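request received
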Amino acid sequence: MHYLGIDIGSLSCDAVVIDQSGAILSATVIPTGARNREAIERAMKEVLAMGGLTENDIEAMVSTGYGRDRVEQRLTAVTEITCHARGIRALLPETRVLVDIGGQDSKAIFLDDQGRVVEFAMNDKCAAGTGRFLEAMSRALEVDIEQLSDLDLGSTGRLSLSSMCTVFAESEVVSLIAEGAEVNEIVSGLNRAIASRIQTMVKRIAPNLDGLAVSMSGGVAQNAGVVRALSGTLGCDISVPQKPDTVGALGAALIARDRSQTA
Amino acid sequence: MIGGYFEDLESRLERILERRGDRANPRQIYAYETARLGRRLFSGREKMAWCGLLVPFEILSVMDVVSGFVEFVGGELALMDRIGPLLATAETAGYGSDICGFHRGVLGASIEGLMPMPDFLIGTSGPCVGGLAVLENLATTFNRDFFLLEVPQTDTPEAVHYLTKQLRAMVDFISAHTGAPLDMDRLREALVLTNQARELLLEVFDLAKSVPSPASANDLPNFGFVLPLLLGTEAAVRIAEAFRDHYQTRVAKGLSGVPGELLRLMWLQNRIQFQEPLVRMLENEYQASIVVDEFNDILWDPIDLDDPLPDLARRMISIPFTRRAEQRVAQLRRLAEAYQVDGAINPCHWGCRQGTGARGLVSEGLKQIGVPVLNLEVDCADPRNFAEGQLRTRLEAFVELLSNRPSPWQDQ
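response:
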């Protein structure tokens, strides 16, 4: 018996297949692009092929992410908050506070000692500090988004950005480059700006982090610079699972398995 | 445009009510009576006053003045999907896009010449200063007299005395504009109806507390705000009676407003006024029922027919939303317990300092009794800023959270 979880985000479409024990059989991450139905189909085909499976081998499927209702064959749609919580519980069971930064949403999720969601906070009104924000900044810096990860190393941390609006921050970055600011200083400023924004959400759900294990999931968790900045701002260590971008899809697959067993 | 809308709605509902007779739905009766009031406000054929939310409308009614609060107009504009261009008009005129959409809509309507000229205006210092500013704006635009009732935030004999004196002055102010004194016999008759409606409303709210609740989310939205516009008239009694009978029948048959009710929710402050699919989604997909709204409660005693003004003053002061946050939180805790809610939704209406200023205290106060609160960010009257997908995710995550935890009332 196998179970499929699919996370349709604004930037990437992630799929994970697990077996009865919850072990990951295959996982894939593809860009969502403009047509999310095509991305869903492609991600499903890819993850099944990688596991040497066909659709008939899938006992149940749960979808999540902003496009969760677009998956026709799903058992049910579950929000990314619940799925990320379920996924991180499987990978880093001690997690009590989870930060998930995706393409257009950032979330802070507080879990009880059983891994259930107790409270959550999400970015409101705008997507500053999310994957889209970093995408725009990498464009302004003329570097690949993957490269951003370590570009802050060696910075003094003295440069701060005055705006977190994606449009204004992009022009501010362009101005800073024109003024001759070092790229590592700019990237460090960007990371700290994101961290400061995330911090307010984390503090809202967990005013005191003493003794609470903090983890991070979502595509932006692959950016070591953002993780470093957030760790510094929160004053605690942050654990990141091996493939943070598939945590939501893993959670969805686990929920598919759990629900299928109790049905 | 606005008057025509109310006129159409009134005649359509009138036909429905005639056709359905005794089988009329209480929501249709409620909609009919509010449409009728809206039509009268915009008809230009009666003495009319724009007022603040807390004004005792019975007094104006028996002095032959049709009256309403301006937020009623803002809400109706949003409901009829006509508010967008008016909000843009207000913004073009320089009003900030982050001030309350209900007020911005009325300001836009005023600029466009769509607000009828009142004979006078009566403001109340609570619940919000934004509404007061809109009234003052209209008073200036129309060059009409404006009377202000300063509503104290404490329920003390001195405060009641202070407000009673102002109500007497208000009666004189109205008399000066209508040319007729207040007929105490007519007021007494009206207050008999107020007291009747009060008794019926107590029954309605009590029935709504049943588990499962006979109430569905769209039965009584903003009821605690809007029904007082009709107090002192047969209309309020008719509406309250219709809901009482409807709920009594449902409870007797064991029927719930939301079939298979799984979750019971409380809605804070005002509802999202324009058409949106999320409340229906909560009911249909999660069997989550909004069983109570913050203002759907009776916190005042029957009005003394022989000396009504002090009791009307007490009624104005009784609303916890207009008082200290501590009292509002205590009231929300009482409602949460009485209705056994699993969670509360606070829309955190943009631009409402009164409503959102105490957001943290409200969340904390309800959390202490095991009731989680979902804080949204939405202008309840501005559909242009409605991020449906974002709000859907928050609401769905909230009901998922509630579904995975025991009810805070399971041991009671």
